[in-house]
Each structure stands twice: as C-alpha cells, then as structure tokens.
Write a structure and sequence with these properties.
Blueprint (H helix, E strand, L loop, with lengths): L14 H13 L5 H40 L5 H19 L2
Length: 98
C-alpha cells in the first residue's frame, strides 16, 4: 500500500470494526472488570499513538506545501506572487472558520 498506510490481509476486519466489537463487548458486560480496564488502557494508548501520527503527518504536509510554494514562486511574476500569497492566506483563513 502506498503512502505508509496499514495494509489489511484478506478477510481481516477494518480497524474500526474491531474497535466497535471491543466497545460493544465492554458495553454488554461480556468482559471482566480486569479485562475492561486492560481494553480501556489499550484504547487510551492507541488514541495517543494516533494523535502523535496525526501531528507528525500534519507537520510533514506543511513542509511539503512549503517546498511546493518555494518551487512555484520563482516561476511567477511579482504581481502573480502577491496574488498567489493572497490566495493561500484566504484559503488558510477559510479553513480556520468553524
């Protein structure tokens, strides 16, 4: 799989399906208190790992955009550069709005 994603084997459930099954087991009381605590600890750890990966990915994407912009700016005239930078700022502002 390209992009560093996790490849799933044939007949392997999607990760979200596994999480749903685990949560359902906890909710239905099919797990002992000790098992429930271990599941919750594991989910907390997973959540932290996912947060770290997202932060790293966001940093990498920002770096790629900066490199891309650095390659484009020399191609543009001074007026086009101003317009391009303005467009970038407008798009950033639009993404920040709730």
């Amino acid at each position: 799989m390209s992009g560093g994603g996790v490849a799933l084997k044939a007949n392997q459930p999607e990760p979200t399906a596994v999480f749903d099954v685990a949560r359902a087991g906890i909710a239905r009381g099919k797990l002992t208190p000790e098992q429930t605590e271990k599941f919750r600890d594991s989910y907390r750890e997973l959540g932290e790992q996912i947060r770290v990966v997202r932060e790293e990915t966001n940093e990498r994407v920002r770096s790629l955009y900066a490199q891309h912009t650095a390659r484009l700016l020399p191609i543009l005239s001074p007026e086009q550069r101003r317009e391009y930078r303005q467009l970038i700022e407008e798009r950033r502002a639009a993404r920040r709005k709730p």
